[in-house]
Design goal:
The chain is an alpha/beta fold. Helix content is about 50%, strand content about 15%.
């Protein structure tokens, strides 16, 4: 998969007007009806694609259609990969698979997105779905630029803070102050063994590679962590996409 900066592909996204456009068959299996309606309206409005909507994986696998692209929701794609690996292989040989997900799901889904041909973010760039499908058919993926910086990844992690328990949150905050497990245990009046377990949980839930990365994040986002503790976490920045 080839990933591009959002502003580095204007030529690819807007071919010369005399370039012939071939109608493509796109199948949809998305995770909710509202998103399906939005995507269908955009695809049909452009008049560049023939659209078929399936309600679940079973309908797709029983179909004899060979679409150019399959737009599939993250939950559906995860189920396909985990429960129907042979079906996934068959579909991936004949069609491009483009996963549709929200930005806050990116870190959770990183391990499975490599098996897709391209990605579309429903809360950031789904309004460019026609262009993104055409890029996906060529094996390209357009990444919103905020994901290409560490601060962009920080923003995603901030949206995941509610999954931390209070002891986990406090452990993360104290990692940002450079404390070791023994010092954190004393501060929180917990055993060192429990702190080790809390650190592992924080790393897993927020997708840090190690405690140093977690500590740097907590130090860099000190103000945002305080806001989150008061229930005023900042939303993911959508600007500049």
């Amino acid at each position: 998969m080839h990933m591009h900066h959002e502003y580095a592909t204007e030529r690819a996204l807007h071919p010369p007007s005399n370039t012939p456009v071939t109608a493509m068959h796109v199948c949809l299996i998305l995770d909710n009806d509202a998103l399906t309606e939005t995507v269908v309206t955009a695809l049909e409005g452009a008049g560049r694609h023939r659209v078929t909507v399936f309600h679940d994986i079973a309908e797709l696998t029983q179909s004899t259609m060979t679409p150019d692209a399959i737009l599939i929701g993250l939950q559906q794609f995860t189920a396909l990969r985990e429960n129907e690996p042979m079906v996934y292989l068959r579909l991936s040989r004949r069609s491009r698979i483009i996963v549709v997900l929200s930005s806050r799901e990116l870190l959770d889904a990183a391990h499975i997105l490599a098996f897709a041909d391209a990605w579309v973010f429903e809360d950031i760039n789904v309004d460019r779905i026609n262009e993104l499908v055409e890029l996906g058919l060529e094996g390209h993926c357009l990444m919103p630029r905020q994901f290409l910086s560490r601060l962009g990844v920080d923003e995603i992690r901030l949206t995941l803070l509610p999954r931390l328990s209070e002891p986990e949150f406090e452990t993360l905050r104290l990692l940002g102050e450079g404390m070791n497990n023994r010092t954190i245990a004393g501060r929180l009046d917990l055993s060192e063994a429990i702190i080790k377990s809390l650190v592992r949980s924080v790393l897993s839930k927020l997708h840090f590679r190690n405690r140093t990365e977690a500590g740097v994040f907590a130090a860099r986002q000190h103000g945002a962590l305080l806001n989150a503790r008061r229930g005023d976490a900042r939303p993911l920045d959508r600007t500049g996409t």
